[in-house]
Amino acid sequence: MDTQFLESFLLVVEHGSVAEAARRLNLTPAGVTQRLKALEQELGMALVSRSGRTVRPTEAGWSILPQVQSLLAGVRDLRTIANEKSFAGKLNLGGISSALTGLLPPVLSTLAEKYPLVTLFVHPGSSNDLYAKVISGELDAAVIVEPQFSLPKTCDWVTWRAEPLIVLAHRGISERDPHAILESQPFIRYDRKQWGGRLADDYLQQNDLSLTDRYELDSLETIAVLVDRQLGVSLVPDWAPPWPEGLTLRKLPLPLSSQKRKVGLLWRRSTPRIRLVQALLAEQLEIAGADKTAIRKAG
């Protein structure tokens, strides 16, 4: 039995679409349909049924689905073992902008030194978009803001950095009360479509602050520059450096706030490149441990 036929069947079932399975396999829909028919002929039963453009497994298809998933996972494991000595492969990794400039560069640097045969394709995007791409299998993993909802059982998560919310103001503002600053100055809002922006908006609503909105945008670096130009103040997570250079800013902690933007790695447990994801996790853990040791020594 050709495992490629099984892979085609599994993708059609997962996405409910021959066209989507064909796109992911780089085949024509006719090619995928031909594979399905060949598999059905070999097994002597209909595995899928069609209703318009939607494809669903038949009762027989549902019955073999767990075995197909297990068999394909075993095949992927065999390929990983075969490549273990050279540890080569391609990892599709997503990252939000602050992670791409702050958290990921040192991890990717050490990963490249240890595993020169590993190829990384890094995809920038928002947490919402990258989350969807990990869930669909388009990405193996992504460094994003932790979702404020339960993750599916098919995924795992580890937090890399917890970032408290801070009021960002120009050094020329002498007021010390962060709430008074927010209510007395034009407000530059962190985009509420971003998960970090929603966290900031939740804080503002919970504390019933009266604001005068001037801008709303999704770039933290741009917000910092606008605050430096004295165009307003903002409420943002204290994101990982580097920050734009040459800015004269004040970072004020919030009173009695435990709200933090958690940034970390989301990945699919069933990705065929799980060993590469594990290598990425190991490098970040090693770097984080070294940073803590350096902080303790400095203290």
Account of the 3D structure:
- The radius of gyration is 24 Å and the shape is elongated.
- A hairpin with a 2-residue loop joins strand 1 and strand 2.
- The longest helix is centred in the C-terminal third of the chain and has 25 residues.
- Helices cover 47% and strands 24% of the residues.
- Helix 1 crosses helix 3, helix 1 crosses helix 4 and helix 2 crosses helix 3.
- With 299 residues, it is an alpha/beta fold.
In short:
The chain has 299 residues and is of the alpha/beta class. Helices cover 47% and strands 24% of the residues. Strands 3, 4, 5, 6, 7, 8, 9, 10 and 11 form a nine-stranded mixed β-sheet that branches. A two-stranded antiparallel ribbon has the order 1-2.
- Percent helix, as a range, is 40-55%
The secondary structure category is: alpha/beta
Major beta-sheet overview: 9 strands, mixed
Radius of gyration: 24 Å
SSE pattern, N- to C-terminal: HHHEEHEHEHEEHEHEHEEEH
* Level-1 CATH class name of the largest domain: Alpha Beta
CATH homologous superfamily (4th level) name of the largest domain = Periplasmic binding protein-like II
What best-fitting shape do the alpha-carbon axes yield? elongated
CATH second-level architecture of the largest domain:
3-Layer(aba) Sandwich
Count structural domains. Answer: 3
Number of helical stretches of at least 4 residues: 10
Q: Briefly note the CATH topology name of the largest domain.
A: D-Maltodextrin-Binding Protein, domain 2
Q: Catalogue the unreliable spans.
A: 292-299
Query: How much strand?
Result: 15-25%
Q: What's the mean pLDDT score?
A: 87
